[in-house]
Amino acid sequence: MEYYRVFKTTKFIATVLFVFILLTGFQFANAQTKGIYLIDSTSKVPVQYATVQDESNSFSQISDENGFIQLLRLPINSRFLTIMCVGYQEKMVEINTLSFKEQIAVIYLKQKISSLSEVTIKAASNNGIFKTISDLDIHLRPINNSQEVLRMVPGLFIGQHAGGGKAEQIFLRGFDLDHGTDINITVDGMPVNMVSQAHGQGYADLHFVIPELIDKVNFNKGPYFADKGNFTTAGFVEFKTKDYLENNFLKTEAGQFNTFRAISGINLLKPDNDRRNQSLYFAGEGSFTRGYFESAQNFSRYNAVLKYHGSLNKTNTITASVTGFTSKWNASGQIPDRAIASGLIGWYGAIDNTEGGHTSRYNANAELHTNFKNGGSLRNQLYFSAYNFELYSNFTFFKEDPVNGDQIRQKENRKIAGYNSIYQNENYKGNLKFETKAGIQLRYDYIHNLELTRTKNRTVNTKQLALGNVSEFDAAAFYSEKISFNKKLDVTAAVRTDYFVNSYLNKLTNEVKQSGSVIVCPKLNFNYKLNNNVQLYLYNGRGYHSNDTRVAVEENGRKVLPPAYGTDLGGIFKLGKKLVVQTAVWYLWLDQEFIYVGDEGVVEPGGQTQRYGYDLAVRYELAKNLYADLDISMANPRGLHVPYAESYLPLAPRFTSVGGLTYRKQSGWNGSLRYRYMANRPANETNTVVAKGYFITDGAINYTTQKWEAGFSVQNIFNTKWKETQFDTESQLQTETAPVSEIHFTPGTPFFARLSFTINF
To answer: Can you tell me the distance from the alpha carbon of 589 to that of 607, in angstroms, rounded to the nearest whole number?
Structure first.
């Protein structure tokens, strides 16, 4: 009851704050400062995240989600504005020629495929040093399917091992991140990571995102950003979905293995002028595949989105959405090498083909953005999610129960409520520029009937291992100050504090345990812009990931929030006219933690670890419309305070590379040829068992017109047999008298061809 009152109080405070800010925003409704709107000349939608500079570069601003830029700090003697945005023609306008109506002018920009020769290295924004690379990638390599969502992050690999419906396993910077333990993932400001999840801490299921609706992918690596909290050790990824649909569209896909997918997006409001200042659209997705396994996975997924974005007045903008997602599937799980070698099953066979599950997530999200006449802005967000999860797995077959088998059910019913508030402003003191960013973040999770049960064929319960209710509350505050000493050097100092309250009701013992814990995370970042072609950076920070509530209450707050300390030293370089290179050396140290193993219902200690490595990202324009990219990540992950020969971190990647060629035009033929490579890596602490690497090639070709697009894509062009996920597991087959420890794996996708057709209207 105590934590239910905390939940109710939190909702009340958040609601009062939201209403207060709404009223405050209306107070400034008639205080609009002079500004410009940047508008797409064809679709009339706002051009977001464009950079506007005057001729001396003393004024530099980025357009918001309405395409708006305040001219409050534009020097009086400025004569010209230069507007730059990936995907649009650069434009220079003479300020005296602009027609200001009620202090507002409108500038129209024309779309184009950007050339790398037009790219200049800009000072790092609050989104991080990778923004140039990120903008180029999402523009030149549009996301075509849900698996490619996370692959937009250089060096990030994913693997599926439960029939398509389970969240992917993630690998980045020498981490086996499991399903999201050390990477913070958000969509439109809503958290994707699930704390104290039935299957694993930080579980991040992105299948509720419709790929065609993704507008931006912002990311960075390391624990260096104060507004990014829990799970931000290896880095963060934040997805921004579209506020506007440029066109209505209907897309269909069909492929091998009885694969079908359909998606449609419809604008529900018609534009009434030459600037669309509001939007309401609906999008729906349905997909089905039998799958390439011998036992049909029959994976189905359905998504629906209703989203509104519009101006309440000259200073306030509201964005609101409701989304729904549901999926179900069967799975063949992980199979042991010996079962293949003996001929017991085939490469795509199963030991227990009754694995699988179903899951659903429903979200409501609302954000109010207010511009103040002093040039500052305030964002206030409320969100709510209802989430259901049920997963059946069998990792050890008949090791624990020789009669019924070792299948387990992991299940939960969760409600999440949260509030985010972020204030930003710029000020000048002499020649110094100060950029302030401060905010609070509240999140409450209530998980009903968090369950771990042994089952047989999904239908028979054989043993209850764990059952309980979890309450977890996280209140955070952060402050960041970026000081630009001149046009070349800026320093950002920041601090973040998180306070956690955890409670667990064990329904098997009827015992309630509680704990509270606090962590403070300072950050210090340096950026030095040598010229328009070179920027160097040094980032330092402390981050953390929380542990499962069932660990927190058992440890009475000790080791509940194990810290991580990181450092990045690198640079981004424009070499010649058509080559962009990003490179970094990095180090990350993590403190000891206690881990709740959701598959067994036990707590295990984890020792201190360190990782260091090197990242390289290259983008090169080979010829007009033809682009090459290459990402290389090297890491040395090790455990500390153990014998060196036993210090390997199982499944942590040590060398990965992705890259490819992309031919990109606004109309006509488009295509890409891409590869991904993961080298061999240790599967146990002594490296005596090895997880074999793989090299996979994918390709796609499209023909695009203004009204329609036809496409053909192939995954695994050379039909390579590869192991997508691998584990060194001890298991026992029904015919065996003793368990055996060896590699268990899920086979990766064979040659898989698909056709797609899209109509715009």
So the answer is: 11
Strand partners, 282: 266, 306
Q: Which residues of 170-206 are buried (b: 16+ CB within 10 A; e: fewer)?
A: bbbbbbbbbbbbbbbbbbbbbbbbbbbbbbbbbbbbb
How far apart CA 454 and CA 174 sit, in angstroms, is: 33
What is the per-residue pLDDT across 94-140, written as a single tens digit (0 to 9) for each? 998 998 888 889 999 998 877 777 666 665 554 445 555 556 666 55
Same domain, 106 and 198: no
Identify whether 165 is part of a domain.
no
Distance, CA of 411 to CA of 469 (rounded, Å): 12
456: its two tokens: 């047989």
Q: Are strands 299-311 and 694-704 parallel, antiparallel or unpaired?
A: unpaired
- Cα–Cα distance between 589 and 606 in angstroms, integer? 13
Residue 660, φ and ψ in degrees, nearest 5? 165, -175
- Are residues 332 and 453 part of one domain? yes
pTM of the predicted model as reported, rounded to 2 decimal places: 0.91
Q: How far apart are CA 336 and CA 468, in angstroms?
A: 33
Q: In 3D, which of 406, 412, 390, 417 has the Cα closest to residue 328?
A: 390
Q: CA torsion 542→545→551→557, rounded to 10°?
A: 30
Give residue 26's domain range: 12-112
* Per-residue pLDDT tens over the stretch 282-339: 999 999 999 999 999 999 999 999 999 998 888 899 999 999 999 999 999 999 999 9
Residue 227 and residue 99 share a domain: no
Q: Which of 13-27, 86-100, 513-527, 585-599 has the lowest mean pLDDT?
A: 13-27
